[in-house]
Design a protein that fits this description.
This protein has ten helices and six strands, in the order ααααββββββαααααα. Strands 1-2-3-4-5-6 form a six-stranded antiparallel beta sheet, with no helix packed on it. Strand 3 and strand 4 form a beta hairpin. Helix 1 runs antiparallel to helix 2, helix 1 packs parallel to helix 4 and helix 6 runs parallel beside helix 8. The protein is elongated and about 105 Å long.
Amino acid sequence: MISIIDRYLLQEILKALLAILLVLLLIFLSSTFIKLLQQVSVGDLNASLLFRMLGLEMLRFLARLVPPAFFFAVLYALGRLYRDSEITAMQACGIGGIRLFRGILIATLPAALLVAWLAMVVAPWSARQSGQLLAQQEGQAGELAGVNAGRFNQFSDGDLIFYVESISPRARRMRNIFVQHRRAGENGVISAAEGYQRTDRKSGDRYLVLEDGYRYEGVPGAADYRVSHFARYALRIEEAGPVLSKRPWKGMPNGLLLASDNIYLKREFQVRLSQVLALLVVALLALPLSRAGPRQGPFGRLVLAFLVYTIYLSLQGAAEKWMLDGATAPWLGIWWVHLCWAGVALLLMLPDTTGYRRWRRRLHSRFSPARQSG
């Protein structure tokens, strides 16, 4: 049965969690949106896929945002209760820090289940969907997937640059085209009224077919250049390298990762599991780190908590590198980092236990000046 104190703590933590998670999501979405816009601007991503890729990236990284959001939500909620002397009143009624941890645990368990679902199911699914979208884009439009009307588009490592005034959305025909191409040390300039993309069925090569235009060829600075008119002219386009992720294991099912002997696949499974373990560890760390006096400001504890969480994340990254380099055994992996920090959190929680207080009172009475003088 959930008590009034537990419901009160749960309400305060959830309100802070939603606010902090919203801020983190806005920061993540803005930075990811800028990166995707850069890919669209250089032609690596079709503009029509921009918002779909943005949503998939948000789902893929959401599991990583929940643990820090939960950590600082608990810190904020408990820190406010300490500063407003509400926890002091609770302690006067016999409700200690360990009893408060029950309320934190009630909020931790559903959050851990949510993170497990996001990390084990949603994140791999979104990685697979992103890969399929990029593969579909690669197969349908090749290197011209990111062509935009009204600006210069560069392809084939700069050997092909063209400008198109407008593109028909249905027929994918381009109108009023200007092309500059470099071949065997010579630069060619082509202007055409219309154009489209064609794939040769036998060879699979892609061509930019131009209609009703003029072709200018020659060496820059020389007077001997050639001008010719054509009804149809085809430019072969070199295939772009795959835009798929270089880490395909990001979208692999958990069963394949767990059964594999590949060190990268083992690391990926432990990284997914670490996101759940991280939430449990930060729940333990938040209670002792949230202690504050009635007149103590909130920033000192927040700075300390931010430093602790930064060290925690750095150790996880170092453990991943040690695992890949063979410095640590594969069975040890990176879970030992969470175990060590859970031990640190339990040590920090000792002052809130009844046994520790009894031992401290006993020690104080034994070495007190009054007892020594007697």
